[in-house]
Amino acid sequence: ILNVEQSPQSLHVQEGDSTNFTCSFPSSNFYALHWYRWKTAKSPEALFVMTLNGDEKKKGRISATLNTKEGYSYLYIKGSQPEDSATYLCAFDNAGNMLTFGGGTRLMVKP
Amino acid sequence: KAGVTQTPRYLIKTRGQQVTLSCSPISGHRSVSWYQQTPGQGLQFLFEYFSETQRNKGNFPGRFSGRQFSNSRSEMNVSTLELGDSALYLCASSLGTSGSDEQFFGPGTRLTVL
Question: Mean of the pLDDT values across residues B15-35?
Answer without folding.
Answer: 96
